């Protein structure tokens, strides 16, 4: 309790420090947008109003692409849907408060529904990022064609113009767009720095690891897309009112691509970069495109290529790089919790068969794992060990036979659902989050236990003692604030192991967890695993090639050979078995 109170106090202080900077910046920007109309001519006000609306659109693209890794050309579709919903209502039903309110509501709801649909189509299980990007190209094309086909109803290629709009005047539209931009930028800035913002970056960095931490990546992506679709629609409402004209191009993928260019030039994953990129390019474009329409596009194109080649982080990349900020969070030990024991099997595998085309990798595997057991799977290279772990942790793998976890058939369940059943998996090649610090990775491993805040970053991380021991014995506890990209191979292995243990799964699947560690570190980690299983009732399946290590810590050994489970017995039985000797000596003769 005291720890939590302390953590909130520290976190509040950090939040206040960041908040003060943000507040000052916001106040300055607010003063500029409120006073701007006093010294800007009408043309400049109109252009900057549009630029600031575009800046909000660029931030939506940055949140999707820069932070979450969803390269989308389709934000224009949601913007166009919002703008056209507004223009159609005001053209065909007329102005007045009620109709403005109706237009406002529909300009948000319709794009949100469309975005939810696009998100659902784009992020089904095992869809690729390329597929999502292609969908994002198709949607604006379809929408633009629908507008063209709409005849006088949609204004076809001429668009809609001359409809009644909210009578605010150029100066107040400028102020409204400016205030909306400041609010949206500030909100986005707070969210991307929060723990929830780290979840977005986790999905960008390593969606597979995120899913295997139990994070429902597709749901997060669809939700984000839906919310940002609504915001794009709102921008469309503002645009249709301030500009008094809508044309099919605003819904097209050309405009969607322009937003990508603004974001890349300004600087991905920085919020302010894309906003300034949009304002700068749109404003300069308005000034210059009249006198040199084609050359201007050429300049932007060359600038884009040059930036991608020489300053991939965009304009913000020219600023001095900020070091990973602030004090690393404190680690707090959770009280040891015994997993419920009992005689029933946690995991039951019966008749498992897995084939890739005609190549049978696993055949006729039967296996039971009970609470408190540490089972090691041994066998020559290519015997099917990793494939077995993959089948146990991803129910969408095409297999024959049955796998049940605590009596629940895992067939059809994606990894995040299987995590919820209590299975944690450590991969053969350490799978962590490259752009994050050690502490951030650990925090993400606790996502399913502690809902990440949208507003702040917690200043403590609660971890089970076994995870703390792993961190301490490999020295990772002294590197909490350091980026993962600078860690050695062995350190990454230990970090991933600590992350999996931090999830407190009932059954831990470990694929060569100590590869890259020293003999002494291996022994110590072996002790931790032994304590976890024998004292605390966790179960573990371990793949290891170091037979001495395996002998020390395992209760049972399972031998896989050419996809078949050829032996399942005590360490003594297996190690002294003729069959096992012949398998390994046979391999030696290969
Ligand atoms: N996606 C795939 N498509 C086709 N074949 C595959 C695929 N994944 C694995 N295999 C094959 O299945 C066999 C078993 O692979 P697996 O990685 O499970 O073996 P392993 O026992 O873990 O080996 P190692 O000890 O070298 O890690 C290998 O012959 C491998 O080439």
TrEMBL record:
GO function terms (MF aspect):
ATP binding; ATP hydrolysis activity; branched-chain amino acid transmembrane transporter activity
Residue ranges constituting the ABC transporter domain according to the UniProt record: 347-587
UniProt keywords (A-Z) are: ATP-binding, Cell membrane, Membrane, Nucleotide-binding, Transmembrane, Transmembrane helix, Transport
Listed InterPro entries: AAA+_ATPase, ABC_AA/LPS_Transport, ABC_transp_permease, ABC_transporter-like_ATP-bd, LivM-like, P-loop_NTPase
Transmembrane ranges, per UniProt, are 21-40, 100-123, 130-153, 173-192, 222-240, 294-316
* PROSITE patterns per record: ABC_TRANSPORTER_2
Q: What membrane topology was assigned to this protein in its record?
A: Multi-pass membrane protein
Q: Which CDD domains match?
A: TM_PBP1_LivM_like (cd06581)
Q: What GO CC terms are in its UniProt record?
A: plasma membrane
- Where is this protein localized, as stated in its record? Cell membrane
What's the protein called, per UniProt?
Answer: ABC transporter ATP-binding protein
Q: Supply the source organism for this entry.
A: Paracoccus kondratievae
């Amino acid at each position: 309790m005291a720890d939590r109170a302390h953590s909130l106090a520290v976190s509040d202080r950090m939040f206040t420090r960041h908040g003060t900077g943000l507040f000052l910046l916001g106040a300055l920007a607010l003063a500029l947008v409120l006073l701007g109309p006093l010294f800007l001519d009408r043309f400049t006000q109109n252009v900057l109003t549009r630029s600031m609306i575009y800046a909000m659109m660029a931030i939506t693209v940055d949140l999707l692409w820069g932070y979450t890794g969803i390269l989308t050309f389709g934000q224009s579709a949601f913007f166009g849907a919002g703008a056209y919903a507004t223009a159609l209502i005001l053209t065909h039903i007329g102005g007045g408060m009620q109709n403005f309110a109706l237009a406002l509501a529909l300009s948000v709801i319709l794009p949100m529904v469309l975005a939810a649909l696009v998100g659902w189509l784009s992020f089904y299980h095992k869809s690729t990022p390329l597929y999502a990007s292609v969908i994002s190209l198709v949607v604006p094309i379809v929408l633009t064609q629908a507008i063209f086909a709409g005849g006088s109803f949609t204004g076809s290629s001429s668009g809609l113009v001359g409809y009644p709009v909210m009578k605010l005047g150029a100066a107040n539209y400028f102020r409204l767009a400016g205030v909306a931009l400041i609010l949206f930028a500030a909100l986005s800035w707070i969210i991307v720095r929060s723990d929830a913002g780290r979840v977005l970056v986790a999905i960008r960095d390593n969606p597979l690891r995120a899913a295997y931490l139990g994070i429902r990546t597709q749901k997060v992506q669809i939700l984000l897309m839906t919310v940002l679709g609504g915001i794009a629609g709102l921008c469309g409402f503002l645009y249709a009112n301030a500009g008094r004209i809508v044309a099919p191009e605003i819904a097209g993928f050309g405009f969607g691509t322009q937003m990508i260019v603004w974001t890349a030039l300004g600087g991905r994953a920085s919020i302010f970069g894309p906003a300034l990129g949009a304002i700068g390019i749109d404003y300069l474009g308005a000034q210059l495109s009249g006198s040199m329409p084609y050359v201007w596009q050429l300049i932007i194109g060359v600038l884009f290529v040059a930036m991608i080649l020489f300053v991939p982080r965009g304009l913000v990349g020219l600023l001095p790089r900020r070091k990973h900020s602030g004090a690393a969070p404190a680690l707090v030990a959770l009280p040891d919790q015994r997993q419920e024991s009992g005689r029933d099997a946690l995991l039951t595998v019966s008749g498992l068969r897995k084939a890739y085309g005609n190549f049978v990798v696993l055949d006729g595997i039967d296996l039971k794992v009970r609470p408190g057991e540490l089972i090691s799977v041994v066998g020559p290279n290519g015997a099917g060990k990793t494939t077995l772990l993959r089948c146990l942790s991803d129910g969408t793998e095409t297999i024959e036979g049955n796998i049940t976890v605590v009596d629940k058939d895992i067939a059809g369940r994606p990894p995040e659902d299987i995590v919820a059943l209590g299975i944690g998996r450590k991969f053969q090649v350490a799978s962590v989050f490259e752009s994050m610090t050690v502490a951030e990775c650990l925090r993400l491993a606790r996502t399913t236990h502690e809902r990440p805040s949208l507003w702040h970053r917690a200043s403590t991380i609660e971890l089970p003692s076994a995870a703390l021991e792993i961190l301490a014995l490999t020295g990772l506890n002294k590197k909490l604030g350091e980026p993962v990209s600078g860690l050695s191979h062995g350190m990454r292995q230990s970090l991933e192991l600590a992350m999996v243990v931090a999830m407190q799964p009932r059954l831990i699947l470990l694929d060569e967890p100590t590869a890259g560690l020293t003999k002494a570190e291996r022994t110590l980690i072996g002790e931790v695993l032994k304590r976890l299983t024998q004292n605390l009732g966790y179960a573990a399946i371990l793949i290891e090639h170091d037979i001495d290590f395996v002998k020390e810590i395992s209760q049972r050994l399972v031998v896989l050979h050419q996809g078949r489970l050829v032996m399942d017995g005590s360490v003594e039985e297996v190690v002294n078995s003729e069959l096992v000797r012949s398998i390994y000596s046979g391999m030696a003769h290969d």
